[in-house]
Task: inverse folding
């Protein structure tokens, strides 16, 4: 197996310094919806300038370079141990080159490891095996801390919100999450929602769904409808960019469903900030393609 | 857009109103969770004895913060090996975590401005009126853009807290912010929270 450390380093650089096209397009469109001279429009204009500058100078879009989350699809027979080692080496190098801020802090001793490597779980790497003739794909998402802090999990029913164990109840708690978040998650945000699972799997699924492109709708028409409705209703609340007030609070909503125990009904909401950093690399033979 | 220079006079502070976009020019200092806790424990509540270089650092930052500005920021800094520091990315971090400490810190150091994101709560707002100081909201995540307004890194204290948590003394030029909490009891955050809650309740009532 060839050593991909340099290629993975490039994946990290691109993810941290250049926003995906579909996200940038949405943000640019959002500028036009805000009133000229408003704080909301000013905020979005600054965001757009920041995107251009980061790309040009190859500097991090945001100083919080987030939790690195890797999803790796590897062809049968490839060593996941070797891949993991290369990902970790690339991460340490990316930190040395200031594409990443040292972001792994030992929770017990409060010590920053200095290189974004911390124990076995940082960076987080998820492996899935595919057929031997399939390409290797590595996807990376950088999930900011400010927006992670406004993520929330509900256990339905929730009597305070009058939310039962159905999609109507899901709608209520997701809107509650947006209202509570205000601008704290660096709005405008993108919502990842998972329904079902246990507490752990539910949160993971709510992040995994954020790997899909803007505007991708769930195949299930009821969920697709709910996704659109939630984006629309979240925006009616007028929280706006940075919580300054304005038209755009949420750029998109993505929902996924999991199996659950009869006893539990969790709804997990992951809030992704405007700095929606996700990139993919595909390796077939000698060729490496970045999306 | 109004340009405010640091140190900021009381008169200027009192003239700033919620919703006003301004730019900041002068010398400021970054400080976030570890710094606020260190200030409170060691010098304000004094539940912990000064250790190591604590007293020297205190003497150095005191004049900087008098009528000065604290920036809630954990930057990405280049030049760590050579000590020729340069801010690469320097957007604001979420301020609400400092809510228990902020008003006391501002009062103790006689500071006039906090820069951060997301706004702060009632204790800080009361402090804004009393001290007086204002809360400046920077654009969250606009790290490269803001780093550009950092002209120079003048020094760093408590680098052992880690790069994001250390106190970086920086010279800025035309740093763009919006006043979202003023010294007259005004808070943009309280207004938006209230408005959005009303809409939320209407939405809840719908099927
Ligand atoms: S929430 Fe996102 S944009 Fe805001 S500071 Fe954190 S990573 Fe940056």
Result:
């Amino acid at each position: 197996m060839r050593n991909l450390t340099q290629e993975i380093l490039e994946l990290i650089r691109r993810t941290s310094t250049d926003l995906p096209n579909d996200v940038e397009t949405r943000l640019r469109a959002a500028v036009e919806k805000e009133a000229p001279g408003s704080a909301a429009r000013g905020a979005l204009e600054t965001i757009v300038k920041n995107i251009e500058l980061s790309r040009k100078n190859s500097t991090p879009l945001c100083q919080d370079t987030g939790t690195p989350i890797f999803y790796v699809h590897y062809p049968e027979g490839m060593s996941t141990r070797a891949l993991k080692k290369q990902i970790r080496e690339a991460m340490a190098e990316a930190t040395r080159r200031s594409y990443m801020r040292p972001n792994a802090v030992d929770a017990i001793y409060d010590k920053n490891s200095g290189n974004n490597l911390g124990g076995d779980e940082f960076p987080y790497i998820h492996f899935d095996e595919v057929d031997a003739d399939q390409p290797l794909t590595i996807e990376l998402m950088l999930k900011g801390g400010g927006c992670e802090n406004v993520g929330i999990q509900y256990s339905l029913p929730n009597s305070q919100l009058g939310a039962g164990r159905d999609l109507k109840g899901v709608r209520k708690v997701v809107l509650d999450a947006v209202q509570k978040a205000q601008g704290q998650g660096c709005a405008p945000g993108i919502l990842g929602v998972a329904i079902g699972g246990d507490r752990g799997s539910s949160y993971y699924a709510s992040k995994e769904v954020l790997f899909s492109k803007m505007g991708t709708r769930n195949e299930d028409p009821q969920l697709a409808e709910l996704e659109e409705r939630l984006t629309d209703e979240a925006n009616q609340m007028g929280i706006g960019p940075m919580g300054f007030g304005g038209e755009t609070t949420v750029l998109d909503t993505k929902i996924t469903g999991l199996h659950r125990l009869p006893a539990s009904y969790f709804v997990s909401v992951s809030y992704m900030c405007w700095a929606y950093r996700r990139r993919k690399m595909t390796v077939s033979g000698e060729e490496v393609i970045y999306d | 857009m109004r340009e405010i220079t640091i140190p900021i006079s009381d008169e200027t502070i009192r003239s700033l109103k919620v919703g006003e976009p301004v730019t900041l020019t002068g010398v400021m200092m970054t400080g976030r969770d570890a710094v606020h806790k260190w200030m409170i424990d060691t010098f304000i509540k004094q539940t912990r004895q000064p250790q190591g270089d604590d007293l020297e650092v205190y003497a150095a930052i005191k004049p900087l913060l008098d009528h000065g500005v604290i920036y809630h920021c954990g930057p990405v800094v280049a030049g760590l090996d050579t000590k020729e520091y340069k801010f690469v990315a320097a957007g604001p971090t979420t301020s609400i975590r400092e809510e228990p400490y902020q008003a006391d810190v501002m009062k103790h150091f006689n500071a006039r401005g906090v820069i951060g994101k997301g706004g702060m709560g009632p204790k800080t707002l009361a402090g804004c009126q009393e001290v007086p100081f204002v809360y400046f909201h920077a654009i969250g995540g606009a790290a490269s853009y803001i780093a550009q307004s950092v002209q120079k890194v003048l020094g760093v204290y408590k680098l052992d807290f880690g790069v994001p948590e250390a106190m970086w003394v920086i010279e800025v030029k035309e740093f763009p912010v919006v006043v979202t909490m003023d010294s007259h009891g005004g808070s943009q955050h309280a207004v938006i929270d209230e408005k959005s809650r009303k809409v939320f309740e209407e939405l809840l009532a719908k099927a």
